[in-house]
Design a protein that fits this description.
The complex is a heterodimer of chains A (about 190) and B (about 1100). Chain A is an alpha/beta fold and about 190 residues long. Chain A has a single domain, classed as 3-Layer(aba) Sandwich (Rossmann fold). Chain A is globular, with a radius of gyration of 17 Å. In chain A, about 35% of the residues lie in helices and about 15% in strands. In chain A, helix 2 links the parallel strand 1 and strand 2. Chain B folds into six domains: about 120 residues, 3-Layer(aba) Sandwich (Rossmann fold); about 160 residues, FAD/NAD(P)-binding domain; about 160 residues, FAD/NAD(P)-binding domain (3-Layer(bba) Sandwich); about 130 residues, FAD/NAD(P)-binding domain, CATH 3.50.50; about 170 residues, FAD/NAD(P)-binding domain (3-Layer(bba) Sandwich), CATH 3.50.50; about 70 residues, Alpha-Beta Plaits, CATH 3.30.70.3270. In chain B, a hairpin with a 3-residue loop joins strand 26 and strand 27. Chain B has 34 helices and 50 strands. With about 1100 residues, chain B is of the alpha/beta class. The longest helix of chain B has 20 residues. The chains are: A alpha/beta (about 190), B alpha/beta (about 1100).
């Protein structure tokens, strides 16, 4: 049974109105963990909305940046534990992309912690719950994300998704040790 | 879009938190929504009826289901949509139970708001959903099982029982795998072969199982259901006519370490690993041609006669040595022996004395064997001009083929340069005459003193009715002396001088002789002059002046050494400038040369280094030329550069029907063996010509040259060549007796035993002659076969960890250290000792035995493996128990890390063996040292007490762990399946899909997947078979809707998707419109390629960018 204090705790951390967080979840682990924790009626912050994907390797920077540009205050990717991807290395690809988006956000003056990667197994619902709460807490502590309208001054600290090429490839970041920050849609 | 939104109350699970009516009202406002309905249980029959009605009444093309998690009821609604003919991707899911009502029970307002958002996201997503194609794939009702061990056989039999045709592929000669090597099995101690043999037989007799032994899987391509498999069948060299009598084994002279016996016993080159082998046909292990055979111009199987000499079978050896060569006694003396230069033993210590062994065999056996005349079969007589080695060899081959042959020889004796060019001390005349006699005994007629172009003409021979003519006239004249003073008295030509000598004359030589030249002829001339001077009463004074830095091939170092011992002075890098004298020679003028850095064969003169050498005789041996008398009266014959012009493929000259060979038409070395080879080619060419068959190239294709691996020679104990006795140097000068003696039989056998058997099969031909059913076929070649199969089971097994990698344990260095596998062979009743335990060094029965566990297993150092090999604890316990029962006095100690006996009845068995008196010590061994008597000192740290112990044992047995076999590593690469630690094949899911691999339609069983016991292997094999049966039973399959597909219009063929795909389902087309293509049969729908694609051309069904973005950005 959830106590009133727990309910209160879930609702806290919201400074300046409702936050919206999009969670891209792997079907094999995070989404399964979410189902299990939900079936046990574990309360979660309502700010986080789940999107089902077959593998976090499906996530491209386009998805993450578009979600932020179109209303989300934070995005999270929840995949399998390192080495346990059902498709070999899809979760590593996701880790690379999240890192890439974080650097991109930082470069335009947006807090990189608005984009986070979490890993867990299907058998670890508490880990999923912790991840969601952590994301809610971190994003909730940040001011709401301000955006400029499409076509407005690009020098403003904001995110625009219109010029983002889909599926920007950042896989090299893992394979070569050095930083490989690549402009989306640019030469690479 | 005409979407219907169906809201499920889930019996209050949802409606207890979220108010349904307001949610429905909101849904109605969403773009594209034409119908909204609420039901208590949308997944029930009522809900289904409601959906059906709405689709019919309102003409819906999309369903938005707002209910529980898609992971629960997703398939139900997908099926409803499919049945309502809405296509494959008509349903969008809004997870308002796990995603909302269950987790926000205490915040109904915010839950309501979130539910609205979730439904809106699903509706937005639905707008971008479109139908996805699915393909029907035919499934071939056949399967490939790779690996014929106990797992492979179990899987094959199970599949066959289900009526599936099985191709069972095994790399080795027989089915059986590792289990066939075991003496007994734990925990029951029943004989391994007793339980395996019935399986071998039933597999062999099963009509649904096609067994391919000695076969490798080279490629597996195509989609599951219709894999295309390429098999490479290696030749067995024994046909199915083999009745398994084993006569061949009795005559095979080659003995090679048996891999079946784990290297503790030998087997022959033709073999069957064990009595119950399937197939029961024997096989020959042939690695190609041995280096000696490849190097020989006539490809005499030197390894063959050496092996036969080693076995003391001299008559068989003679048959092999004389097979392609009518002059084995001659070649045993004068051959340049390129075989010895090629001999692999040379990389260990010294090459085998091949020529000396050949001479021994030919001299010992040759004179004793009678020769029967060959029968005449063909009407055309053949004329051979020149009875030298080429002509006589050609005559012999043609006589064997059934031709009447006439040899015309200008000299009063036959034998050519072998007879008139080589002095007696190197090749006694009676030896060459005996071998010529053996050729003539076959039937050829020899006419001496007949010079072509003088006494008869080639044209005339054809008029007489000869069908073909072979010209083997050789080079009979010394080359012109290109020096001032060459015409002086006292200047001799070497060829002519030697001919005079060998025909019984005594050439006149002076007291101080200079020989000019650098080849065999020069050396022969010089050494003859020494003997002539000795006979004339002079003190030998001969200087050989060689213009080059060293003597030319084919003269070998031994000959040069012998010449020096006889008193010859050798002067290298001396260029003769002029022969001095007025009427008679008085000396020779020379100039020193120095080696040329850029071209070693062209030394350059040193200015101002002229010197003079006094001499009264100069012998010139600087090349031989053609005497072209025969060209007179041979219309159409062309000469070129002092040789007869021939077609290199057909051996025919420019005159039809006239062939040529030997020195007169050679491009290669002017050696005896090259002339013999030319004679063989000539004989075959004339046969082809006369029989009207096409003139095929006479230069045959050579099989691969067999070389021992790098490790093999390193493991050989060095043992130098048995020296050949020679007459002492000064003693030799006095006569013409042969310098080198022949080996005694004992020496020959000892020398022959040094052979490394490079090619394993020596091609001696003994088995071919011994086989009563004519089953041995050396012409078999590799065959490549293509199959189509529906599914694949990989059961390629394991191999034993190489214990020599743990250097301090001394395996491979100390004789009395075995592995459990080797011990198992010793304890096997069918093993090399018939079950008697004896230690390798002295054959004694060991009394104190130490077994060491975890060799190469549970080992974090780089030389070992981390995994536990699972079977070793019980394997050692079993072998210890067997020893203890057979030799109750024996003390057996097992040093273990942790004793693991988790299998059924394994713990009980371990306790039983403990009671039988086997001692278990928990301890770690630092090193094992060998004592003088071969026993072993083991230093052990008892990990229970922490005390260091030391013990001396008669025998140490290492429990070497299991690692992936080479076959497993190879098939993983070929099949494109993942491997994990230790090289074992990785299963798709360690718990839920333990026999699937990450490639659809490919399954894994047995120790290819990881170390395990026999019952576990069989259980897994049967599970894999069940998976195949389930997959193939319907006869066809549909591809999934959720697969990736590329848009060829957008694709730039960068290939990123090809690299990204974990299933290898993507490939690029070629050409101007190159683009990526995904095989929907292989794709498993992860979408990694779509995320990697830089252009957006690649999209994943159900999860396109548009669908994901629509849902994420509401």
């Amino acid at each position: 049974m959830t106590t009133a204090t727990e309910a209160a705790e879930v609702g806290t951390g919201m400074a300046g109105g409702e936050r919206s967080i999009v969670a891209f979840c792997c079907r094999e682990c995070a989404y399964a963990a979410a189902d299990t924790s939900a079936n046990a009626r574990t309360s979660l912050p309502p700010s986080v909305r789940l999107i089902l994907l077959p593998c976090t390797g499906r996530v491209s920077p386009l998805h993450l940046l578009s979600a932020l540009a179109e209303g989300a205050d934070g995005v999270m990717v929840a995949g399998c534990l390192e080495g346990q991807c059902h498709y070999r290395e899809g979760n590593f690809n996701a880790i690379d992309r999240v890192t890439f988006v974080q650097r991109l956000l930082e470069s335009v003056g947006v807090e990189p912690e608005r984009c986070r990667m979490f890993t867990m197994s299907a058998g670890e619902p508490p880990r999923f719950v912790a991840a969601v709460k952590e994301m809610d807490r971190v994003v909730g502590a940040l001011p709401p994300l301000t955006r400029c309208a499409a076509g407005a001054d690009p020098s403003a600290t904001a995110v625009g998704a219109g010029d983002t090429a889909p599926g920007t490839r950042v896989g090299a970041a893992r394979r070569s040790a050095g930083p490989a920050l690549v402009a989306p849609g640019g030469e690479h | 879009m005409r979407a219907g939104v169906f809201l499920c109350e889930c019996g209050g699970n949802i409606s207890g938190v979220v108010e349904m009516e307001p949610l429905a009202a909101h849904a109605r406002t969403l773009d594209g929504v034409v119908e909204v309905a609420i039901d208590q249980f949308m997944c029930g029959t009522e809900g289904r009826a409601m959906i059906e009605k709405a689709v019919e009444d309102r003409g819906l093309d999309r369903l938005v289901i707002a209910s529980c998690s898609q992971r629960f009821q997703g398939p139900t609604f997908d099926r409803i949509a499919r049945e309502l003919k809405l296509g494959e991707n008509a349903v969008a899911f809004a997870n308002i139970r796990e995603g909302c009502s269950f987790v926000h029970r205490h915040e109904p307002e915010r839950a309501q708001e979130k539910a609205r958002k979730i439904v809106a996201a699903a509706v937005a997503r639905a707008r971008h959903q479109s139908d996805l194609p699915r393909r029907r794939t035919f499934l071939s009702r056949s399967a490939l099982v790779v690996g014929g061990g106990v797992a492979g056989m179990a899987a094959a039999e199970e599949l066959a029982a289900a009526g599936i045709d099985v191709h069972l592929v095994e790399r080795e000669q027989s089915l059986g795998g590792y289990m066939a090597k075991l003496a007994k099995t734990f925990p029951t101690e029943d004989c391994a072969m007793c339980s395996l043999a019935p399986r071998l037989t039933s597999t062999a007799l099963n009509g649904h199982i096609h067994i391919h032994t000695l076969t490798d899987v080279e490629e597996i391509s195509g989609p599951p259901g219709e894999f295309r498999v390429t098999l490479r069948h290696h030749p067995r060299f024994v046909t199915e006519a083999c009745v398994g009598c084993g006569e061949c084994v009795a005559v095979c002279p080659v003995h090679y370490p048996s891999s079946y016996e784990e290297g503790i016993a030998e087997r022959t080159a033709i073999y069957r690993p064990f009595a119950n082998a399937v197939p029961s046909t024997f096989a020959v292990e042939k690695k190609g041609w041995s280096p000696c055979k490849s190097a020989c111009a006539v490809h005499t199987s030197a390894q063959g006669y050496i092996a036969l000499v080693a076995a003391g079978r001299f008559e068989d050896a003679y048959r092999v040595a004389s097979g392609p060569n009518p002059f084995p006694s001659v070649c045993g003396r004068v051959c340049t022996a390129l075989c010895e230069a090629a001999c692999a033993r040379g990389s260990v210590d010294e090459p085998i004395a091949i020529a000396a062994l050949k001479r021994f065999v030919a001299d010992t056996v040759g004179p004793t064997l009678p020769v029967r005349p060959a029968s005449m079969v063909h009407p055309e007589p053949v004329a051979i001009v020149g009875a030298g080695p080429a002509g006589l060899t050609c005559a012999r081959d043609l006589a064997h083929l059934g031709y009447k042959v006439t040899l015309f020889e200008a000299q009063p004796v036959a034998g050519g340069m072998l007879r008139t060019g080589i002095p007696d001390y190197r090749l006694p005349h009676d030896v060459i005459e005996r071998e010529i006699g053996q050729v003539l005994a076959l039937g050829p007629e020899l006419r001496l003193g007949q010079r072509a172009g003088v006494d008869f003409t080639i044209d005339g021979l054809f008029e007489e009715g000869y069908g073909a003519v072979y010209l083997a006239t050789g080079l009979q004249k010394s080359a012109e002396v290109d020096l001032p003073g060459g015409e002086l008295e006292g200047v001799l030509r070497a060829v002519e001088m030697l001919r005079e000598l060998n025909l019984g004359g005594t050439p006149e030589v002076g007291e101080r002789v200079v020989v000019i030249g650098g080849g065999d002829v020069a050396l022969d001339a010089a050494r003859s002059v020494i003997r002539l001077q000795n006979a004339a009463g002079y003190e030998p004074d001969v200087t050989l002046v060689c213009p080059d830095a060293r003597l030319r091939l084919p003269t070998n170092a031994t000959q040069m050494k012998e010449a020096r011992e006889e008193g010859l002075d050798l002067e290298f890098l001396m260029q003769p400038l002029e022969i001095l004298g007025t009427s008679h020679v008085t000396g020779i003028k020379l100039r020193r040369r120095e080696p040329n850095a850029s071209d070693r064969r062209q030394p350059v003169p040193v200015q101002g280094s002229g010197l003079e050498l006094a001499a009264d005789t100069v012998v010139v041996a600087v090349g031989r030329t053609l005497v072209d008398d025969f060209a007179r009266g041979c219309d159409g014959l062309e000469l070129k550069d002092g040789q007869i012009r021939i077609d290199r493929d057909t051996m025919m000259t420019t005159r039809e029907g006239v062939f040529a060979g030997g020195d007169a038409a050679s491009v290669g070395l002017h050696t005896a063996i090259e002339a013999i080879a030319a004679g063989r080619r000539g004989g075959a060419a004339i046969h082809d010509f006369l029989r009207g068959t096409q003139l095929m190239p006479k230069c045959e294709q050579r099989p691969p040259r067999a070389r021992p691996t790098a490790e093999e020679p390193a493991a050989v104990e060095t043992c130098r060549r048995i020296p050949l006795a020679v007459i002492d140097g000064p003693g030799r000068r006095t006569g013409w007796r042969e310098v080198r003696r022949v080996y005694s039989a004992q020496e020959a056998v000892a020398e022959a035993q040094r052979c490394l058997n490079c090619a394993v099969c020596s091609e001696c031909g003994c088995c071919v002659r011994a086989c009563p059913s004519g089953a041995i076929d050396w012409d078999q070649t590799e065959i490549v076969e293509e199959l189509s199969v529906g599914a694949v089971i990989l059961a390629t097994g394991h191999k034993q960890f190489d214990a020599a990698r743990k250097t301090p344990l001394g395996y491979g260095r100390h004789a009395n250290i075995l592995t459990q596998g080797q011990l198992s062979r010793l304890l096997s009743a069918a093993g090399p000792t018939a079950g008697e335990l004896c230690r390798p060094s002295d054959g004694a029965v060991p009394r104190r035995i130490f077994m060491l566990q975890c060799v190469g297993s549970r080992d974090v150092t780089s030389s070992g493996n981390q995994h536990c090999s699972a079977v070793c604890c019980l394997f050692a316990t079993l072998n210890a128990s067997l020893i203890k029962q057979q030799y109750p006095d024996a003390e057996v100690t097992i040093g273990y890390t942790d004793l693991r006996a988790p299998g059924k009845a394994h713990e009980e068995y371990y306790r039983l063996v403990q009671e039988r008196g086997v001692r278990y010590v928990r301890g770690r061994v630092g090193e094992i040292l060998e004592e003088k008597d071969g026993s072993l000192r083991v230093r052990l740290e008892d990990t229970m007490t922490g005390r260091k112990q030391e013990g001396v044992y008669d025998l140490v047995v290492l429990s070497a762990g299991l690692e992936a076999s080479d076959g497993t590593r190879d098939i993983a690469r070929v099949a494109g399946v993942q491997t994990g630690a230790g090289g074992f094949i990785r299963e798709y899911h360690p718990k839920l899909a333990p026999v699937d691999t990450q490639r659809a339609g490919m399954f894994v069983a047995g120790t290819a997947q990881g170390p395990k016991s026999i019952p576990d292997s069989i259980a897994q094999a049967k599970a894999a078979a069940a998976r195949v049966v389930a997959m193939l039973s319907s006869g066809y399959t549909m591809t999934a809707a959720q697969v990736a597909a590329g848009d060829p219009e957008i694709c730039i063929a960068c290939g990123v998707c090809v690299d990204a795909c974990p299933q290898m389902a993507v490939h690029l087309t070629t050409g101007t419109d190159a683009h990526s293509v995904v095989d929907p049969n292989i794709c498993r729908g992860c979408g990694i390629c779509a995320a990697e694609c830089p252009t957006g051309a690649m999209q994943l069904g159900r999860y396109s960018d548009a669908e994901v973005l629509a849902e994420a950005t509401v």
